[in-house]
Design a protein that fits this description.
binds MU-OXO-diiron, mainly alpha, Ferritin, 5 helices
């Protein structure tokens, strides 16, 4: 059974959002690198790679369903963050927005009785729980650190230890 036109469009739009996420995280990595926070930069770069992987999951799924793949223009990512705290706040609200979009896609798949797309989206529903949890943890630790530079450097060191982009 072919994807509906509406679903095809919605999946293409989400693929774009995931590519944009990669772009956004890379812009954030560049900022942290320039601010001498190599651990944050490393973590954000891995995050960018992970997002490109998410986008490719949508690409493959559209391909598998014989649907049209449309790559769209990406917006300019944010620049000039006020602080690591400001940056992490933006990360968390971005991930909350992505969760809402995944939920909308799922609601569409339910309304269309599109079972294959529902199954495909299960992975993303679980992933968004992780993404929100992780960004909240880092954000809360940054709040605890406040103006304490040593605490910030400790968080930077911890983030620098991330090994996987999954
Ligand atoms: Fe692909 Fe961070 O959501």
């Amino acid at each position: 059974m072919a994807l509906s036109q509406k679903m095809e469009q919605a999946l293409n739009d989400q693929m774009k959002r995931e590519f944009y996420s990669a772009y956004m995280y890379l812009a954030m990595a560049a900022y942290c690198s320039a601010e001498n926070l190599p651990g944050f930069a490393h973590w954000l770069e891995l995050q960018a790679r992970e997002e490109a992987g998410h986008a490719m999951r949508f690409y493959r799924y559209l391909e598998d369903r014989n649907a049209r793949i449309r790559l769209q223009a990406l917006e300019q990512p944010p620049d000039g963050f006020k602080s690591p705290l400001d940056l992490m706040q933006q990360v968390r609200s971005h991930e909350q927005m992505v969760t809402q979009e995944i939920n909308k896609l799922y609601a569409l798949a339910l309304s269309e009785q599109d079972y294959a797309t529902q199954t495909f989206l299960h992975w993303f529903i679980d992933e968004q729980v992780e993404e929100e949890k992780m960004s909240t943890q880092i954000l809360e630790r940054l709040k605890l650190a406040g103006d304490n530079k040593s605490a910030l450097l400790l968080i930077d060191k911890e983030l620098g230890a991330r090994t996987s982009s999954e």
